[in-house]
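User: Can you model how cobalt (II) ion sits in this protein?
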Amino acid sequence: MFSKRAAARRRRAAEPDVSVAVARAERRLEKHSARSSPSTRGASLGDAVAYAAIALGVCLMLFSRRIPVHAPEDFAPMRRAGRLAARALAHVEPHVVPGVDTGTLDDVVRAFLASSGARAATLGYRGYNHSSCISPNEVVCHGVPSASVVLNAGDIVNVDVAVVTSEGWHGDVSRTLFVGGRAAADVAARRLVDTTRDALRLGLEACRPGARIGDVLEPIAQRLRAEGYGVVDRYAAHGVGRRFHQPPTIRHGAGARRGAGWRLRPGHFFTIEPMATENGSVETATLRDGWTVVTADRASRSAQFEHTVGVGERACEIFTRDDAR
Ligand code: MF3
Ligand code: CO
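Assistant: Here's the modeled complex, given as structure tokens:
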């Protein structure tokens, strides 16, 4: 998930129809080269202007809010990225036991990805230097793995793994786990985790081409709010593909209105990653490490589940489904 600030920065970027501008510049270049004799040497001012227009167009494309529509052949490498992320998460799961520190868990993720010829998308991302985010109890998201964060029986902990394959595609997945097994958790923690998992399932069931994103988000928020939980809105789900984070920005709280938002089209790739808080508040705070996000009261716990999905011709495909489970 990424922050509101980054989203606002992207929103400020203009959203002209860049493809039209680029096409126009390209046509101009073509016409120009058709006109010029083979003996024409060097680039004319017209060429320079056209090239500059193309460069500008490419920049605007990168920073615009346009939702990338991926080609049918992009599904296969996304499947590989998603499956790898899911496998990394499944691989670390048995290591999540009482007494383990989250730095060790991050080492396990990093080693697994290295042995698969991939790496974590989070490694070096905006100064973040870890291969996972590990968020216990009152940590909402972006928990920084550390030797000094030790997990205890009864804790709940979200493990979030985002990978980039050697082919350059991203998969992003997370689950909230029970440390010491489900039986070690108190009833409230079990209800929080089970409800959040179920909420994501309901959202994914509503995912289909032609639906609007609000149709996916509403059942999630409704399920969580019905239990009295807060739906965190400050950290959003996001488009994903060749880039870790790309348009659209998906707000689990504000976007949760049936019939609202953009329409899901074949070729859209994005994450769905609701975060729920135990006490119903959506207020959060960031620790001094600059990353770790906690519930504002630092007591209320939080759970999250995440999948990376792609919209197909007939249905949504979950790229990060873990078939081994
Ligand atoms: N996996 C998180 C997400 O869903 C990662 C956040 S960026 C980080 O986007 F640097 F904090 F890891
Ligand atoms: Co994400």
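A couple of observations from the model: The CA atoms of residues 95 and 105 lie 7 Å apart. The pocket of MF3 (ligand 1) is lined by residues 1-2, 122, 125, 128, 133, 142, 160, 162, 172, 271, 273, 291 (CB under 6 Å).
User: Helpful, thanks.
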